[in-house]
Specification:
Two copies of one chain form a homodimer.
Chain A lengths: L2 E11 L3 H4 L10 E5 L4 H4 L2 H11 L3 E5 L8 H14 L3 E6 L1 H15 L19 E5 L12 E5 L4 E5 L8 E4 L9 H20 L5 H22 L5 H21 L3 H13 L3 H6 L2 H8 L4 H10 L5 H11 L8 H12 L13 H12 L4
Parallel strand pairs in A: 1-8, 2-3, 2-4, 4-5, 5-8
Antiparallel strand pairs in A: 6-7
Helix pairs in contact in A: 4-5, 6-7, 6-8, 7-8, 9-14, 11-13, 11-15, 14-15
Chain lengths: ~375, ~375
């Protein structure tokens, strides 16, 4: 038995947790930069709550609300420059995965005047500023991971960095902030969370503790599957999904992801398919591909979903996500080749050859129907 | 769903983890105090390994090896004074629960020249020195908790303190360092770990995450029960027990303990019964007492142990621990009364009255056999 464990984030989970624990915001300094996008931070009410608390504690703040969907290096460079110039003490990320991941990059760039490409060196002269994370979607888990996943236009994909100093110091995780999500975003992000738990569970880097958390996550997702399919998503389902998302984040903090994420990045980069949906579409073939390598664990996934075959599992995911994508042979070749370059591909249970990825892509996107 | 989660410790688990990750010791300063007892740190080989690494990195160090079994306030006050006078940068605790708990107190007292009784205020002007924890028993879980449990001679019991700054910064958890334990210590400490997981699982403060970890811990302990009874404890069993111990620590970091620990402290204080054994003896009556309040969870415990009744569970524990204690009515009255004063008693699943504790004590120690 050989493993590491580290979650550098203090988690407060539950309705009203930000207000109840607002004094925590007053521990990180007198000047903050709020990093967010245009949408969910406002719609969710989280930004209003944060502003109210910052005013109450007389903490100066600015808002950088230009985080793009799937933020680029150029995007976070702008946020980092603003943080550096304002000389803020800490960063508050509010939103889905994009703003939360961006806030980590901004926290590093605020403390280190480096080229954004140097983020990928993952070693910095100065510690990143403390990060507070407030998720408004239930999928990324970024609030409890050290990872920042940014779009690399030079590489035509998304790639991650992060080290033990980029764990958010505090995560306020309140399902009330996820209620403004559309049905599609709810489903897509939920499937992302499932993907984290499942890829982590089946990863070569899985640990006994990450497995215990992954099993809990997959089980709870299974309890929500019918509500997701039926668009019958009440507050208790939203809480469960947010809990699954947090667990998924804790899992991948130890395991990273594998080929589902690697393949999904291409669908997002080239076809603008939302990240969670991009992952989910690969799940059926991913499980079939890996079955012989980790059959006991995959049987456990099926048991947790209360199904007996991978196809039954795949059918559940298909009811959540519409596969309306057609890929050409050239696209399939390109995506497979880009996925082979992802470090995470080497952590997949079964050793991956480019032809295997082509096969998965063809079965998923070149099927007769 | 309302909960918090925080484990402020970076864990390295596995054979050779200290040597493999020795560079971590070089991150905390140039002067260390090693806090330990007379026995296990040396016998286990852990102290030798630590000294070798400190010499390699030219880190000055002193050794305070006077930690008592069940250390008193007076004991840690001496260690704290030495640390303060030596002006060390960090503390390395090596040993069972006693040295590890003492190292937390020493880390606080090194940075704060206060009366030891003020440790229980749990708020300190200066942050405690960083603590590195290396367990040599598999029971305490102290390597991943913020708690320091010291003997209060003024209160005639043991009481705990600790806050988020007293989590060890790094825990090196290697079953090789637990191989020098006697059979009795192995069993007693293992039962302590089980108690952490079980009390945490049944506590009013249990959380979804602590429950997932507790279930894993109880299941793995169950896998080791036969080996413990048969004194057939090979390295893989030692690793499992150390893993259970770590999980138990993570559980009680969120839940604290309940009446088993409260009652056990009296047996240890007045009768010198080892801590784990003192806990284990109460388990049968504890489960019966709480059954109606948390029957589903207790059924889960029995299922994880692969038994169908509480008495079958109790019989397994009885095969591990010899109940050779007789208590007078006066002693029972005193122990019940002292346990009522423990804050942890209020976290027990069933609301506890003093008469209930008397009943548990009588059934355990005044039975006809």
């Amino acid at each position: 038995m050989q493993f590491g464990f580290q979650i550098g984030t203090k988690v407060l989970f539950g309705k009203g947790c930000l207000i109840t624990n607002k004094a925590l915001l007053n521990k990180f300094g007198k000047k903050a930069l709020v990093v967010t996008g245009k949408g969910s931070a406002k719609a969710s009410g989280a930004l209003d709550d944060v502003e109210e608390i910052l005013k109450e504690y007389k903490i100066e703040y600015s808002i950088y609300d230009k985080v793009e969907n799937n933020p680029s290096l150029e995007n976070v460079a702008e946020g980092g420059k603003i943080a550096r110039e304002l000389n803020v003490d800490f960063i508050i990320g509010i939103g889905g995965g994009s703003p939360l991941d961006a806030s980590k990059a901004v926290a590093i760039l605020a403390a280190n005047d480096i080229e954004p490409l140097e983020l990928y060196k993952n070693v910095f002269d100065n510690k990143p500023l403390p990060i507070i994370a407030i998720p408004t979607t239930a999928g990324t888990g970024s609030e409890v991971t050290p990872y920042s996943i940014l779009t690399r236009n030079d590489m035509k994909t998304k790639m991650s960095f992060g080290n033990e100093d980029t764990f958010p110091k505090v995560a306020f995780i309140d399902a009330a902030y996820t209620e403004s999500m559309s049905y599609e975003t709810t489903v897509n992000t939920a499937v992302d969370a499932l993907s984290h738990a499942m890829e982590g569970f089946l990863s070569r880097r899985s640990t006994p503790v990450s497995d215990a958390l992954a099993i809990e996550a997959i089980k709870i997702f299974g309890e929500c599957a019918e509500a997701l399919i039926d668009n019958n998503i009440d507050f208790s389902v939203r809480e469960k999904l947010l809990y699954v998302s947090m667990l998924g984040g804790m899992v991948i903090s130890h395991t990273g992801t594998t080929i589902i994420h690697g393949l999904g990045y291409s669908l997002t980069y080239f076809k603008d398919i939302p990240h969670g949906k991009a992952n989910g579409l690969f799940m059926r073939e991913y499980l079939k591909y890996n079955y012989n390598a980790v059959n006991e664990k995959i049987n456990k996934v099926l048991e947790l979903f209360k199904v007996s075959t991978i196809d039954e599992f795949g059918d559940i995911i298909d009811k959540m996500l519409k596969n309306d994508i057609n890929l050409s042979s050239e696209e399939i070749q390109l995506y497979a080749s880009l996925t082979m370059k992802q470090r995470s591909t080497s952590y997949n249970a079964r050793e991956v050859a480019e032809g295997d990825l082509i096969d998965i892509l063809e079965k998923t996107f070149l099927s007769p129907n």
